[in-house]
Amino acid sequence: MRHITGIILGSLILTSLTAFAAEDRRQRVLDDRTQVQAQGDWVYNDLGKGTEEAKRTGKPLLVVLRCIP
Fold first, then answer.
1. 14-63: pLDDT as tens digits
2. Nearest-angstrom CA–CA distance, 53 and 59
3. Which ranges of 40-69 would DSSP assign to H, the alpha helix?
4. Taking a C-beta distance cutoff of 8 angstroms, is the pair 49, 43 a contact?
5. 64 to each of 12, 19, 47, how far by Cα in Å?
6. In angstroms, rounded to a whole number, what is the distance separating the alpha carbons of residues 43 and 50?
7. What is the largest CA-CA distance in the chain?
8. Domain extents for the chain?
9. 12 in Cβ contact with 20 (< 8 Å)
10. What stretch of H or E contains 43?
11. What whole-number distance in Å separates Cα of residue 68 and Cα of residue 33?
12. b/e map of 22-35 (b: 16 or more CB within 10 Å)?
């Protein structure tokens, strides 16, 4: 019985930690986006605007595709 209780308790703790980690990761992504936009050096999530900026300045366009699981 103690073994089963330990497994259940451990599962609940891991589930709680996973949910916390997911929220923490989400917040880091949002903070990153806010910081990038505040600096004004990068065009974030707007390919059309980035293309226009590249044409206007005569600079090459760098597109970064990110996957944040």
1. 665 555 555 687 888 788 878 877 887 888 888 999 999 999 999 999 99
2. 8
3. 47-57
4. yes
5. 38, 28, 10
6. 6
7. 71
8. 2-57
9. no
10. none
11. 12
12. eeeeeeeeeeeeee
Radius of gyration of the chain (CA): 21
Tell me the whole-structure pTM to 2 decimals. Answer: 0.48
For residue 31, give the amino acid letter: D
Question: Is the CB of residue 68 less than 8 Å from the CB of residue 29?
Answer: yes
Q: How many angstroms separate the Cα of 23 from the Cα of each of 12, 16, 30, 37?
A: 17, 11, 11, 21
CA distances from 11 to 29, 62, 64, 69 (A): 27, 44, 37, 22
Distance CA 12, CA 15 (A): 5
Q: Identify whether the C-beta of residue 55 lies closer than 8 Å to the C-beta of residue 66.
A: no
